[in-house]
Structures are given as C-alpha cells and as structure tokens.
Amino acid sequence: MADAFPQALAGPSSKERRYDRQLRLWAASGQQSLEDSRVLLVNSDGPWGKQSTGVTGVVGVETLKNLVLPGIGGFTIVDPAIVTEPDLGLNFFLEEESLGKSRAEETCRLLRELNPDVAGSSHAKPIAEIVKEDPGFVSRHQLVLISGPIQRSSLDMLCTAAKDNGIPVLYTRSVGFTSTFSLQLPGVFPIVETHPDPETTQDLRLLNPWPELDMAGARVMNLDSLDDHEHGHVPYILILLHYLDKWKRSHNGAVPSNYKEKTEFREMVRSGARTNNAEGGEENFDEAVAAVLKSLNPFSLRSSLREIFEMDECKNLRQDSAEFWIIAAAIHEFYKKDNLLPLPGSLPDMKAQSADYIALQNIYKTKARKDIEEVVGLVRSIEARLGPRPAEISEKDIEIFCKNASHVKVIHGRNIPQIDADARTTKIIKSNLTNSDSIIPLFLAFQILDDIVTDIQQGKIPDESLDDDVVWNTRIDRVIGVITSDNPAEIDEGARERIVQATQELRRTEGGELHNTSALTGGLVAQEALKVITRQYVPLDNTCIFDGVRSRSEMFKL
Amino acid sequence: MLKIWSMKQKQQQAENAEGADGKKKKKVTAAQLRVQRDLQELTLGSTMKMTFPNPDDILNFTLTIEPDEGMYKGGAFAFSFTVNQNFPHDPPKVKCTQKIYHPNIDMEGNVCLNILREDWKPVLNLNAVIVGMQFLFLEPNASDPLNKEAADDLRTNREAFKRNVRTSMAGGTVRGVQFDKVLR
Amino acid sequence: MASADPATRWKYLYKALSKPGPFSDEDWVPGSETISALESSKVLVIGAGGLGCDILKNLALSGFKDIHVIDMDTIDISNLNRQFLFRQADIGKPKAEVAAAFVEKRVKGVKITPYVGKIQDKDEDYYMQFKLIVCGLDSIEARRWINSTLIGMVDFENPESLKPLIDGGTEGFKGQARVILPTLSSCIECQLDMHAPRPAVPLCTIATIPRQPQHCIEWAHQIAWQEKRKDEPFDSDDMEHIGWVYQTALERAKQFNISGVTFQMAQGVVKNIIPAIASTNAVIAAATTSEALKIATSCNPYLENYMMYAGEDGVYTYTFEAEKKADCPVCGNLARKMTVDPDMTLEAYIETLGERPEAQLKKPSMRTEEKTLYQRFPPQLEEQTRPNLQRKLRELVQDGQEIAVSDPAYVIDFRYRLIFS
C-alpha cells in the first residue's frame, strides 16, 4: 500500500488530520500561535466562610476543555479548593476518586487526557500567595482566565500584573442560569486577519482601473463583432469596463455616480445582452447587470482604518514600535499617494472561458503584487529611518496586512469593568438600565454578588449573608446610589425591580453554578480566548452577559 | 404560555399511548408526498413517456423523450430519475441511460441542465425539470457543453453536426466513438 | 463506598429546582416532585459527535438519569479536536458506544443506552418512550426525518405523545439552537429555507471551462472518476481515493494554468467538510441542554423558539420566534383520523372522499408509505394502479395506517389515518 502511494501523495500528517476542522478556520499560523501559548486559570480564591469551598469553578474548567482540545501549548490551574460532593454533581473533569483531593490537581489531570500534546500544571494555593513567592508567575502566561466571584484585591492584583506584562484577561462569573464575562486587552490590540465576509472586501477598481486593466477592457471594444460563443463568455468585469467607457464618452468623461444614473447604466448593460439564443439571454451579462449597484462605488476608506491612520501609534513611530504600526504607517503613506489601499488582488468567479479568466486574474494578482512591493519599499525606508530593530519585518507579514488592509482593526483595551471605577462605565450602565429589554441588570447583580463574597471572604459579614434579604437589599440600594449619584430621578421603579429580579435569579443557587450555563459560558469564553491568542477574527469589546432564563445575550462596552 | 405537560400528571405508560396494533406503520414521507403531487401536476406531451419499474416506488422512474421536431426527431431518449428523501431540498438526479451524441450530455449520461444543479430551488417541480430536458433536444446548447466535441461541431458546422446526430442515433460511429442506437 | 446523599452532590441543581425564580411560572411547584420528574425523564440524544458528546455530558450533569443515544458513525481522527469523549485509541469504534460508556463511568448514577445505527431503524414505539429529544446532527435529511416522525406521533387526546425536539447545529464560529413542539410551534420543515443549499457550480463549467481550483477537484471527483474508475465506488474516507482525486485535479489545474489545488481543499470539496471547533459546539450543545432542563422541570421559561449565535465578531446572539407555516408540508397538514369500512373498495372510498364534507376531494391521488394506492397521472402509473380501485381497503391498507392524498383542486396535501369500522 505504502509503495503504491508515493510520499508526496500520502496527504496530511496525523496532526493536520487531527486539527483539520479548525485549520480551515485559522490556518497553520493561527494554530502556531495557539501552540505557543500558555493559559493561566485562576479557578477559585479560597473558601466563602466556613461552609463553602468557594467558587465551584466549572466555567473555568469548561473553558480550558475548549482550549486543550484545539491544542493550546499549555495551561496552569490555580485553585486552592479541595474536591467535595457538590463538585461531583457539577464538574465533568472530576471523578469519584477525586473526592478530598486538590481540585487543581484533579481537574488538571483529567483535562490533560483530552490532548497528549498539551502541557498542564496545577497549584493548590491561593493566587495571592503564589505571586508573593514568585512575582514572575503571571508573566509566564499569554492569557489569564479568572473564575469569579473573586476577592476584589486578588482581581485587581491579577489585572494589574497582566496589564503590566501585556497579557489579556478574561474575568468570568457563572451563577444559576446566568453568566457574564469581560475581556481586558492590554493597551491597543490590533488585528490584521479579521476574516470579514469576502463580499465586503471585494475591490475591483472598475471606476479607476490601472493601465493594465484598462487595456484588458479595451480589448473587448469590438463586443458587437464577437461571435455568439465569445460574446457569451466575456468576463463581466470587462463588459462593465466596456460600457463604462461608452457611458463616459456620452457623459463628458464622468462615471455613473448616483442611483438614477447607475440604474440607467444598468439598463444600458442589460440591453447589450444577446437574446436570440436558446436561453433568451446571456449569463455573463446577467452577472454584469447584477454587479452594477454594488461594484460601481468610488473607493472610500472605512472609518475604522481612518482612525488607525490618525492614531498616535501610527503617526509617531518609535524605534520599538510594534510591526503592526510600521506597516500601518507604510500603508498610510501608500494611501496618501492616490487615495487607494493596496489592491487585495482577489477576483470572484465569473462566467468566462478558462484562459480569459486566468488572464484577468493575473492582471489583478500582478497589480496586487506590485502594490505589496511598493509597501515593502515604504516599510524598509521607515525601518531605515527608525534605526536598528531586532529583525526586519517579514514580507509575508506585509503581504498579509496588504491583503487585509481595508478591514484591519484596533481595539482599545479597557479594564475589567467595576461600577465604581470609571464614570464612563457607570454612564453606559445607567443608559441601558432605562431600556426594559436590556439584560444589564444582571451585570449589577453580579457586581453585588462580588461585593458580598469579598466581604464574606474578608470576614466582614457572616457566611449566611449570601442568602440574606437585608444584605442584598442594602447593596442593591448602594449600587443604585452609585449609578444615580448625579441625578437620582433617572432610575425609575421598573429599573429597580429589574435589578431585584436579576439578584433573585442569582440567589436561587446561592452563588452556585449550573452545569449547562457554565458549559455554554465556557464555550463563549474559550471562543474569545482563541480569537485573542490567534489574533484572528474580532474579540469581544468588552463585556458579554448571558441570560439563560430567556436564552439570549448582550454585549456592552463597559 | 403552553404547559407541555403537567408535572403532577402520572407518567403514562408509553405502550398504552397509541393504538392497539403493536407495530406502528410508517408515514408517507415528505419527499413521497411531494412527488405524488408533482406527478399529478405534470403536463406530458405526446413526446414523453414515463415508466415506473415498481409502481409503488414513485421516487425512481424512467422518462423517455421522443422529439417530434428538431435535429433529434425520430429518436427515443431514456433518462433515469432518482429522487432522494431530501427532495425537494435536493434536486432529482437525472441520467441518460444511453450513450448519445449531444453537446449537453456526456458519455457517462451526465446532463448539464442548470435547474438540476446550481439553479435548483425547492419551489421548482418535476414538470420544470421535464420541460428543461425536452428543451435540450429542441435547442442543444453549444456554448456551455459537457461534450466539447459535439459542441464544437454544432458551433462551427451545423450541417455536419446534424449529420453526426443522425449517424449516432442510428448506432453509428462519430469521431471514433460508437453511440447507442436510439431510433424509434 | 457509601453512597452520598443526592441532595449534597446535586446541591446547586436541587436549589434551582426547589426555589421559584422571578421568571418561573406562577403555577410551578418547586421541590421534590419536580426533582423526581426530572430524574425519571427518559431522554434521547440523536448524534454522538461534536454536539452529541457535549450534550451527553451536560444532560448527565443536569440530573437526567436515563439517557439514550443514537449514532451510526465510527470515530475518526479528525473528530478528536472537539469530540472530547474520544481518544486516539478509540479511532474506528462506534461513537455511540464509546461516548455512552465514558459518561456513564464518569457520572455515577446515570444510565446511558447506546444504539449504533440509523434513526430510521427505529419506529414510533421507540420514540414514544422518551420525554424529549435532543438533536445534534449535521444532516438536514435526518433532521427532517425525525421532525416529521415526531409530528406524526402527536395524538391530541394524549399529551404524552408530544415530544419536544431540541435541535442544535454549528458551522465554524456560528450555530443555532431551537425548540420545536411538534404540531404546536414552527418545525424544521417550516424553517427549511434557513438552511442555505450548498452552492453548486454548473456541470458544464466543471467539464469544459474550469476557472477555480475547486472546479478541477469537482471534475476529478465527478467526471474523471466515473470515466477511469467506474467500477469502484468512491469512498471519501479512503485516503487513496482522495489522493487520486487530488492528483487528478492537480494535473487538470496545471493544464488550465489554475493554481491553488491542495490536498486539504480536495478533501474539503469532496467530503463537503464544514469547519468545526470545540468552543462553538460547547455553546450550542449547552444551549440545547439548558432548554432540555427547563422543559423537563418547568423551572424557567423555555426558548421560544430559535437562538442563533455568531462568534466571528464579538459575541452575537439573536433570539426570535420562527413562524409556523400554515402551508408547511409536514406540520401544516396533520393526519386526521377517518373511520372507514374496510370492505369498501378503493373506488368507493375515493367516491366518498368527494362527498365527505371534511374532504371534498374530487380527483385525488393517494398512497401509503409503501404502496401507491391510486395515481391519476401520468397515464402509465394510472394504468398500473387502476386495478387497486376494485380491491377492498383491507387488502391495501392496515387498520390505523396513514394515507396521503393529493388533489389538484387544493394547494396542500392531506393525510388521513384510516380506522377500520
């Protein structure tokens, strides 16, 4: 068998086969980033009073499951809890034999079984102690996951350490049927490969063709003299160029610019189709007609990219600027030249003879290549200007940037939101509270739960406070007080009632998790972790709330 | 809001739930029902005949087209139709069971008809397919062929193409390929 | 080892089921009755793959004790990036059995019964035993089948015959979960247009004017294989077959100056591979099992009736009520009971259909699942079925069997369950 099947044809390696279904989403480059990353999970932060071992931590373990399976490099679990009976009714990565043992160790062991390529380690101590003994602990990871509620001091310590080291943080809480999580990205977080819908990235340059494309269009000037077969196979791009030329000649060189003109132009193209055939029309003309409204728009820079060009990081490059900014600055220079971005160079499929299509495709590819070379030149001169850097920016990276230029994105990282930390956060919460459909009250309920747990952990209030109406009501009032400190009239009874209901739903399980909610949330959090680690697709900015009672979610920039 | 079942209701024995006759009988499938309707709504001219090897299985049948005009006049062309249970989400599979010389039908019997593939929609019915098939024999389409040689002949020399059609239909050889005799 | 008190092990679940929430139904009675109703509910999981593995885990940790699972597939290496109940050593074994054994071992007290085979192997008696069905399938055809089977089982005199169907599906970073109450809410068939058909390229493009690497692969798969290896059935799991398609496509691409044919692409095109990752499956599977828990216990309102999720750009979900279609070919024309004299001929029965006020069908064609009773058109089939007209109903149908009737005068079709008088 092996002999009859030469090595070159033996197909993908076993690793490629194992990861095939995900490589189709983030390719080898995304997989490499994943394998180069180590994730820290802080899964609980000590007991809540005497009765509870603290956060049950299912959401953290479920998140890790979804990162171990696709092959993250490694993970570290920090969890001081001991496995108890209730853990076994919630956590799939524990077994009967785990009872009484370290939860960190047991979950780590059973998670590692999922993928032999992933390294895992565990620490059965509170995070504060670990960091005290080993200050570099957090910095040895590329992502920090925290399962809350967690003491405010631990959360602040972790968020600060992560931020100082440029590490993203995902802070998650899952209670009963509801959950919420927030992403803290360090500083500015650029993404090149945002994977937009291919339809939206199409750039055909029909209104401003470069000379080679113009020439290809000129070659079909004799459209009427073509025989039926050839006429029915002229690529629609060339049909449109042909009629644009015709239009310009009767409109003082202007192209169709408004809806009315485009509709007129469309009719002009339509009337060029030959109908004296079996089908009563021509497919390539149909395609041309269908493309008029969406393809004949003058190029305009997306506002997100315009903002990137205007950012300080792009305008004032430094010797140690990230590669992203140097390429962005080069592309900005490219753009300033004739208000265009480098051509992405892809051509949609269209009715055409093979050779004609390939020839046209080559015109686009060649132009794209030329634009990339120009950008490479610009990058090199910026590099020369900035002075010595550790390494030259690779042409491959410049190429990827050029191909994705129109949709690159920069997210401005925000801290893990706290209602009393940032006036902007408070304002957004307040404005959403007035909308009776919004699930923002759940976020407040979680904030109150965080508060109560912190106070129990610090011995300020007794364990029973977790299910004490007076404690909850006082804190609901306090939260409303913070939100409405400038104008108490803004929150009506309805909004207050919605916050109360949200806390009631959390209180059903007294802060405990339900497996389904944590499994679902673990999926969502892992999804964000993957996007952050691979720097592909667009991560959450910055808070998501899931309401499993009514099966819906909402995103907020808090 | 609907209460799916009352929590207080005693769990009923599943066996008692349905009729007395033990084994449940299968339901007519959505695909069968749709084909039943499509067949009833067909308009078959005198040039078309359908045969059902097993009349109880309406998802598999043969359509014979006997063009009474055009270049293929005098021939009888047989196509097998295979409709799967995912019909009408999936189009019917149609194949010519004879080896014929036609620009839109290849030597394996594959048929190039847009509504059998890229343009199929569940709102289309068997009648639309049959009309399309009939049209292929009245107006063979040279511009997008499956049989490139036949298409080139049709495009470049219509008379020679016609002669080739006659030869092939009689079971003769065209360009070194022997075709099935399909004359009535 | 002494078995622990279930109230300790299931502490948080029991709390959620013992305390009303602000959104639970006013008439709901929390507590032990609800808990025992949950624990005695028999549920069926269809599919033990990407969604199925997660669904089984979630149900087992949601208090369900009697779970059945159907899957006909065996484990492949490409499943291991998400189907977390399987290991390298399990490759080639049946998914349903391996998954059931794993979850049963891990979660004490749960019984999981696997069935390795097709859902179509089972009849209504089988499906009748379950309280609800959770479905994690990748095939539209199988979904349509279970949908129409469950709709056909509904007997309005017996509320237990209504089996909620909770369906999940994923594709890359996207997915959806939906709750279907057969005959009462929008069904899979009503929502069929939400499944975009696989875009197809004209056969003639593939045959004569290929432009894309995919066209060359389709040519190798659909045309060259038929010509060159006619007698061998193509097997998309056979690496040699895929290798041949890849090589053949590569040669054709070279001939047309087309670049970009890769082995991975060849496999993707031939097998119609849909990207799949653990995290999306986790989201959708848990969305379906959360609904299963809510429906089985009434502890919170269930999804009405569709939630879609897209994770490429942030976390986006959209929850809405898909509409039930009046002209749905499956739930729009439910079988009605019709009492008939079994000794009546089919011809006489057809006459009565024209007279019965509830029918008034003048030119019906009709069939059972296995038999064409009478088909008016085309003529050949009419001739073949005409002899049935003189036969007695009892020779053609069984007591309680369903017939489906089409009549050109009506745009919808009818189903009757014939009860012998």
Automatic annotation (TrEMBL), chain A:
GO biological process: protein neddylation
CDD domains: APPBP1_RUB
Pfam families: ThiF (PF00899)
SUPFAM superfamilies: Activating enzymes of the ubiquitin-like proteins
Signal sequence residues: none
GO molecular function, one term: NEDD8 activating enzyme activity
Keyword terms of this UniProt record: Ubl conjugation pathway
Pathway stated in the Swiss-Prot or TrEMBL entry: Protein modification; protein neddylation
A cellular component term, taken from the record's GO annotations: cytoplasm
All residue ranges annotated as the THIF-type NAD/FAD binding fold domain in the record: 19-556
InterPro entries, alphabetized: APP-BP1 (IPR030667), ThiF/MoeB/HesA (IPR045886), ThiF_NAD_FAD-bd (IPR000594), Ubiquitin-activating_enz (IPR035985)
General function of this protein: Regulatory subunit of the dimeric UBA3-ULA1 E1 enzyme.
PANTHER family named among the record's database cross-references: NEDD8-ACTIVATING ENZYME E1 REGULATORY SUBUNIT, UBIQUITIN-ACTIVATING ENZYME E1
Protein family according to the UniProt entry: Belongs to the ubiquitin-activating E1 family. ULA1 subfamily.
Protein name: NEDD8-activating enzyme E1 regulatory subunit
UniProtKB/TrEMBL annotation, chain B:
CDD domains: UBCc_UBE2F_UBE2M (cd23794)
Keyword Phosphoprotein: no
InterPro entries: Ub_conjugating_enzyme, UBC, UBQ-conjugating_AS, UBQ-conjugating_enzyme/RWD
Pathway listed: Protein modification; protein neddylation
Catalytic activity, reaction form: [E1 NEDD8-activating enzyme]-S-[NEDD8 protein]-yl-L-cysteine + [E2 NEDD8-conjugating enzyme]-L-cysteine = [E1 NEDD8-activating enzyme]-L-cysteine + [E2 NEDD8-conjugating enzyme]-S-[NEDD8-protein]-yl-L-cysteine
PROSITE patterns according to UniProt: UBC_1, UBC_2
Positions of the UBC core domain: 30-174
Top-level EC class: transferase
GO MF entry, a single one: ATP binding
Active site residues according to the UniProt entry: 112
The entry's keywords: ATP-binding, Nucleotide-binding, Transferase, Ubl conjugation pathway
Name of the protein described by the UniProt record: NEDD8-conjugating enzyme UBC12
Organism field: Aspergillus candidus
Highest classification ranks of the organism: Eukaryota, Fungi, Dikarya, Ascomycota, Pezizomycotina
Automatic annotation (TrEMBL), chain C:
Keyword Metal-binding: no
InterPro entries membership: E2-binding, ThiF/MoeB/HesA, ThiF_NAD_FAD-bd, Ub_act_enz_dom_a_sf, Uba3_N, Ubiquitin-activating_enz
Catalytic activity: ATP + [NEDD8 protein] + [E1 NEDD8-activating enzyme]-L-cysteine = AMP + diphosphate + [E1 NEDD8-activating enzyme]-S-[NEDD8 protein]-yl-L-cysteine
Pathway connected to this protein: Protein modification; protein neddylation
GO molecular function: ATP binding; NEDD8 activating enzyme activity
SUPFAM superfamilies: Activating enzymes of the ubiquitin-like proteins
EC number: 6.2.1.64
GO CC annotations on file: cytoplasm; nucleus
Protein name in the entry: NEDD8-activating enzyme E1 catalytic subunit
